[in-house]
TrEMBL record:
The lineage of its organism: Eukaryota, Metazoa, Ecdysozoa, Arthropoda, Hexapoda. This is Transposase. It comes from the Eukaryota. Pfam families: TNP-like_GBD, TNP-like_RNaseH_N. Coiled coil: none annotated. It comes from Molorchus minor. InterPro entries: TNP-like_GBD, TNP-like_RNaseH_N.
Length: 567
């Protein structure tokens, strides 16, 4: 096979410009390919290209699915592949996918179909996921929407639409536990805050539908809002029972860890927290430390917004996490030893230290870290011992108000921590049984959805409740961006080329011309004799390998056409 540089012809231009390619030319090509002992599976590639020149491009679902599957299978190699086959580039593919899609409330079939194409070729570990569920307030507004081709702003769950204005929207996202991908999945417009029974119904339907396309949901992550806290009673979730069932499928229930840190900080501000007999917290020591640190060398990130947060600051988990940190705990202890803070402040410093370490374990992003608490969760002895100690710590934590009255039973964050800690340990057991090597705990937080809500609410210089139309516009934007973000699972030609080739071949739409020895079946062809699948595919894999693993992907293809006198 010569490898000299040749001018790239337009695929299918067998004759000089002005002469139209005819169906008989494709039949001639098939015979020439067969005479060169090119395998019939590979011939289908070439026939498909030629037919698109003769009959035009049919932009139907089969064609779009072929392009999308090829994009997710081949990843960065899709570009040369698309050039060779005359397929749309990535921007064109995105435009084709979302030009006419209608993302209505509820769980819609177009979203399921797209999600199936994105994930069906992933390894099993990339299909282990959690649902992220949250609710956002809306500013009521009724208006016509071009994207949905109808009026939006009414209460609508995808099955029932009322004439009540939508004042809340419930979001459900799917997030891969391994961090390879995440996707907006469904939304529901409601007039009032979503009820626990409705939340249970939405979650159950999502788990069932996703299971049907091969996505294994192992848990649900939510904020600790009133309706979500009431949901745990409907699901019979408690510190002693972290599992609920959808059909026969078991799932764990986890409250979002960054929000739990935020609620813990807020309770520190409001109450006196007593633990381990002699220790207690007091917010006055945090204020005293801030003043001393600010007037001194300032070795922490603390600002007035951390110590005296406004209404917005009280909802920002970032401020709480920066306050409940190792630097603050260490410097407070230094100030105590130097006499800048009273010895009674040691309880506040110890409390902060415990939650700093806890957050490190529950926010891991790498398998191995310089900080042992930031290592991926593997359920080793040290990690389990710390988690169990924190569970005992939560059980014995007492909360007192300004009148020194015990109000432990009135706060919810302790119960939220107990449920979440035990659920995360249970989730690891479920992953371990599936052969998962470790758990990066940041992947089971609502960080991605929080970013969506932040962008949704931020308007010019202040936060405001979005309207249904602005929500939908942002939802479309995030959906399209997230959909085409490639799973972090690189194409490895040295190992998986045959797997990739088989997957691409199975997605080629049906061709019109008869390839000798083959008959059409759905979107593919099958061998009319009893040849084994291995015998059918092996020569095709060899040709596929030659075409897509050469240094110049397309030269090999055009050289092939030149040798066959097809160019």
């Amino acid at each position: 096979m010569p490898n000299k540089k040749i001018d790239r012809p337009v695929v299918g231009d067998k004759k000089p410009k002005g002469d139209k390619l005819k169906p008989t030319d494709i039949d001639d090509m098939i015979q020439k390919l067969k005479s060169k002992n090119i395998h019939q599976s590979f011939i289908k590639f070439l026939v498909y290209i030629m037919e698109r020149q003769v009959y035009g491009v049919n932009y139907n679902n089969d064609f779009l699915n072929f392009c999308l599957s090829s994009n997710f299978i081949l990843k960065h190699r899709y570009t040369p592949f698309s050039v060779v086959l005359g397929l749309p580039d990535k921007q064109g593919l995105e435009d084709m996918t979302f030009s006419d899609i209608n993302l209505l409330p509820g769980i819609t079939q177009p979203v399921l179909d797209l999600l199936k194409i994105k994930t069906e070729h992933c390894e099993q570990f990339a299909r282990l996921c959690v649902l992220i569920v949250d609710e956002t307030a809306l500013k009521p507004e009724i208006q016509y929407c071009d994207k949905t081709k109808g009026t939006i702003g009414y209460e609508d769950n995808g099955k029932v639409k009322t004439e009540m204005p939508a004042q809340f929207v419930t979001n459900i996202w799917v997030q891969c536990i391994g961090g390879q991908w995440m996707m907006p999945f469904a939304y529901y417009f409601t007039n009032t805050s979503c009820t626990p029974n409705d939340l249970k119904e939405y979650i159950s339907e999502a788990v069932t539908k996703l299971d049907g396309i091969g996505i294994d949901i192992l848990g649900v992550v939510t904020k600790m809002r009133t309706n979500f806290y009431d949901l745990i009673q409907v699901l019979n979730i408690s510190p002693n029972n972290q599992i609920f069932k959808v059909g026969e499928k078991e799932l764990v229930f986890i409250f979002d860890v960054p929000q739990l840190m935020n609620i813990t900080r807020n309770n520190m501000m409001k109450y006196k927290l007593k633990f381990e007999d002699n220790y207690y917290t007091s917010w006055k020591y945090v204020k005293q430390f801030f003043i001393a640190d600010f007037q001194g060398d300032k070795k922490t990130k603390l600002t007035l917004g951390h110590v005296k947060p406004d209404k917005t600051g009280r909802t920002r988990a970032t401020l709480a996490i920066e306050l409940l940190s190792n630097s603050v705990s260490t410097e407070m202890k230094n100030h105590i030893s130097q006499g800048k803070l009273p010895e009674s402040a040691i309880g506040t410093a110890e409390f902060i230290d415990k939650f700093d370490k806890l957050f490190d374990i529950l926010n891991s992003t790498n398998e191995i870290s310089m900080n042992e608490y930031c290592n991926a969760y593997k359920g080793n002895k040290r990690q389990v011992n710390f988690m169990e100690k924190m569970i005992d710590f939560m059980k014995n934590l007492k909360v007192f108000n300004g009148s020194d009255q015990d109000c432990t039973d009135q706060v919810k964050f302790i119960n939220g921590w107990l449920i979440s800690l035990k659920s995360i340990m249970k989730l690891w057991e479920m992953l371990n049984k599936r052969g998962y090597p470790y758990l990066l705990t940041r992947n089971i937080t609502s960080e991605a959805l929080d970013g969506f809500v932040w962008l949704l609410r931020w308007q010019i210089v202040m936060f405001r409740d979005p309207t249904p139309s602005s929500f939908l516009e942002t939802f479309y934007s995030f959906f399209s961006k997230a959909y085409f973000e490639e799973p972090q699972q690189d194409f490895d030609p040295r190992i998986d080329i045959q797997t990739y080739a088989k997957k691409v071949y199975k997605r080629i739409p049906a061709v019109r011309h008869n390839i000798n020895g083959k008959t059409k079946v759905g979107g593919n062809t099958r061998t009319s004799n009893n040849a084994s699948r291995f015998e059918t595919e092996q020569p095709f894999l060899r040709d596929f390998n030659s075409l897509f693993l050469e240094c110049d992907y397309s030269v090999h293809f055009f050289n092939l056409l030149a040798v066959l006198d097809l160019s």
